[in-house]
Amino acid sequence: MSSDKSPPLLDVQDLTVAFPQPGGHVRPVDGVSFSIGHGETIAMVGESGSGKSVTSLAIMGLLPPHAEITGKVLWRNGDRTQDLTRLSARAMRGIRGNEIAMIFQEPMASLNPLHSVGQQIMEAIRLHRHASRAEARQLAQSLLELVGLPEPAHQINRWPHEMSGGQRQRVMIAMALACRPALLIADEPTTALDVTIQAQILDLLRRLQAELDMSMLFITHDLGVVAEIADRMSVIYAGRIVESGPVADILARPAHPYTQGLLRSVPSVNGSARRLEAIPGMVPDLAQLPTGCRFAPRCRYAIAECRGCQDPALEFLKDRAVRCIRWHDLEPIDVLG
After folding, report:
1. What is the pLDDT of residues 230-279, one digit of tens each?
2. Is 255 part of a structural domain of the chain?
3. CA 250, CA 1: separation in Å to the nearest integer?
4. 199, 137, 197, 147: which is closest to 173 by C-alpha?
5. Is residue 265 part of a domain?
6. Considering the chain, what is the average pLDDT of its residues?
7. pLDDT beyond 60 at 1
8. 101: β partners
9. Which of 6, 186, 254, 261 measures 20 to 30 Å from 179, CA to CA?
């Protein structure tokens, strides 16, 4: 975990992503702010459509040209500070993969089926590190060994379709680590895997983070995963962060009804039996957001003021933040037992 005295490695300030459409804009990310310290893991949690992946793509500079981005994404690596939203495409290519790397949910969609996994790792190495082919091959084998694939000299010649889902995800992690990035963005990297393989990948990411002194933004909808891997978490709903703070504090006493709903919908952290409850309704259409609090139509605590006011601002409570006017009225829930 990072030191409070040093500035954050990544500092996202009031990030908004808008896509034009007939009659106006939709904003899948709307005023999002968070930071990641050196060696720290931040989890971004929310349902599909909440804005998690768009946030990560904005950081990586991978959004389509028609996306309108405001706010700042400050990247502090070494003795320089850069706003990633203001960099040229060429400058961003120098950072992407080299200083900030990303792995995705479905490795089969990210790997080229026409090339061996070794060729693909070597291409990433040669692109960013200007190594010879022999040097790139040796480093690729070392990376496959680092991520726990046995017999790397054999694995390097395999094709993506010959590997299991867990093996392909390890290859994607090896590619992401080819240039020893300071920050790894992991976008739902274990969702498509079975529980056993999921646990292995989480263990691998924790080990690699410690070995490489790497920071991580871990994007997920699974709060059980968050409890395993993250230091702090930000809960995002309909494009806005509704709660943030240390993972242990939020799991012990969630302060937003949406966070409570997410916790009620998953098995307890320690595996004990309790009734699971689904959150009613769905994430709202971004083109037709409800008036007042965006979560109010699905919230068991909503009152007239929640629907009549503007979406409430974040309220800061020591090292926590919550976007809810009724946070002090929430009934405690037993998420650990």
Report:
1. 999 999 999 999 999 999 999 989 999 999 999 888 766 555 556 778 89
2. yes
3. 17
4. 147
5. yes
6. 89
7. no
8. 184
9. 6
User: Please, what's the b/e burial string for 246-266 (b: 16 or more CB within 10 A of its CB; e: otherwise)?
Assistant: ebebbbeebbbbbbbbbbbeb
Residues 6+ apart with CB under 8 A from 124: 97, 175, 178, 179
Task: Indicate if the pLDDT at residue 212 is higher than 50.
Answer: yes
Choose one of 163, 180, 197: the last residue of a domain: 180
Q: Name 211's Cβ contacts closer than 8 Å, sequence gap at least 6.
A: none
Per the structure, the complete domain to which residue 319 belongs is given by 10-99+181-329
118 in Cβ contact with 138 (< 8 Å):
no
Asked if 234 and 315 sit in the same domain, the reply is yes
Beta-bridge mates of residue 32: 15
Mean pLDDT of 86-90: 94
Tokens coding 132: 């010879």
Q: Are residues 92 and 197 in the same domain?
A: yes
Residue 267: its pLDDT value, please?
Answer: 67
Copy the structure tokens of residue 251: 């799991």
Instruction: Give φ, ψ of 202 to 5 degrees.
Output: -65, -45
Other beta carbons within 10 angstroms of residue 198's beta carbon come to 20
What pLDDT does 5 receive?
A: 67
Cα torsion angle, 240, 220, 12, 18, sign: negative
CATH code, domain with 310: 3.40.50.300
Rounded Cα distance between 25 and 211, Å, is 43
| β partners of residue 26 | 19
Inter-CA distances, 224 with 191, 217, 238, 251, Å: 12, 16, 21, 10
DSSP string computed for 236-262: EETTEEEEEEEHHHHHHS--SHHHHHH
φ, ψ of residue 295 to 5 degrees: the values are -95, -10
- Which residue has 């068991």 as its token pair? 300
Considering the entire predicted model, what is its pTM? 0.91
